[in-house]
């Protein structure tokens, strides 16, 4: 059984045509993408490396990584976002290998293939996020690097990501997130360690509603955060 929630796929398929509208529903992803990609590049020096972007959607992160010199494969189970991603990559002159395949299925076919694996803003949308982590570990080469980003589960995160972002500021459509699917850093770190990966760093990402800017915040993982891990040689 595929680790996917059809309702989540349908949710993002319905707005796929607007994936690259910088003022539309995906505006926050456009705004945080340079932060995420720069952080990944700083840690992994991705130029010339094989990078897998799991849950790539319309390709915002995949393109950012490709622009920094990586050889990128992007996978997703939403066909409409993938078609948007393929078209936009063509328009951007970027050679990105987009595939409609589950991470677990790709792990069976291409174990130990990738230097870097990313899974960004996707774990909180699947029924079994730990299964995705296991696939990530399998897909990485020995010495490979893993980058995950998701949302903490606590009252502050509920207020910021659901009440504020969806209802007050209207930064994303209502119903984008489900609080019960948010993931505590301790849970994510445990899944990573259970797959024999080493947690290297937790990095927060905060939003200032006054300046309307995001920034990386090493000491604040209360809401959005990244986890950086490595696979032993």
UniProtKB/TrEMBL annotation:
Catalytic reaction equation(s): a 3-(all-trans-polyprenyl)benzene-1,2-diol + S-adenosyl-L-methionine = a 2-methoxy-6-(all-trans-polyprenyl)phenol + S-adenosyl-L-homocysteine + H(+); a 3-demethylubiquinol + S-adenosyl-L-methionine = a ubiquinol + S-adenosyl-L-homocysteine + H(+)
Alphabetized CDD domains for the sequence: AdoMet_MTases
Entry-linked Pfam families: Methyltransf_23 (PF13489)
Pathway(s) of this molecule: Cofactor biosynthesis; ubiquinone biosynthesis
Family membership noted in the UniProt record: Belongs to the methyltransferase superfamily. UbiG/COQ3 family.
Reported function: O-methyltransferase that catalyzes the 2 O-methylation steps in the ubiquinone biosynthetic pathway.
Protein name (Swiss-Prot/TrEMBL): Ubiquinone biosynthesis O-methyltransferase
Organism of provenance: Marinibactrum halimedae
UniProt gene name: ubiG
């Amino acid at each position: 059984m595929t680790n996917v929630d059809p309702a989540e796929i349908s949710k993002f398929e319905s707005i796929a045509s607007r994936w690259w509208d910088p003022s539309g529903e995906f505006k926050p992803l456009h705004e945080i993408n340079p932060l995420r990609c720069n952080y990944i590049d700083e840690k992994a020096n991705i130029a010339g490396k094989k990078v897998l972007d799991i849950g790539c959607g319309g390709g915002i992160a995949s393109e950012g990584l490709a622009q920094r010199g990586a050889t990128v494969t992007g996978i997703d189970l939403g066909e409409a976002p993938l078609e948007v991603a393929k078209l936009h990559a063509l328009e951007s002159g970027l050679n990105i290998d987009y595939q409609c395949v589950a991470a677990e299925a790709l792990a069976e076919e291409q174990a130990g293939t990738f230097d870097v694996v990313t899974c960004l803003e996707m774990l909180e949308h699947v029924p079994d996020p730990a299964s995705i982590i296991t696939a990530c570990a399998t897909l990485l080469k020995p010495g490979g690097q893993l980058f995950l980003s998701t949302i903490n589960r606590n009252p502050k995160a509920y207020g910021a990501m659901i009440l504020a972002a969806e209802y007050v500021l209207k930064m994303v459509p209502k119903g984008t997130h489900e609080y019960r699917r948010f993931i505590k850093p301790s849970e994510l770190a445990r899944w990573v360690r259970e797959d024999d990966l080493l947690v290297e760093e937790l990095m927060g990402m905060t939003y200032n509603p006054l300046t309307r800017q995001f920034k990386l915040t090493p000491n604040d993982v209360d809401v959005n955060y990244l986890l950086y891990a490595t696979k032993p040689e």
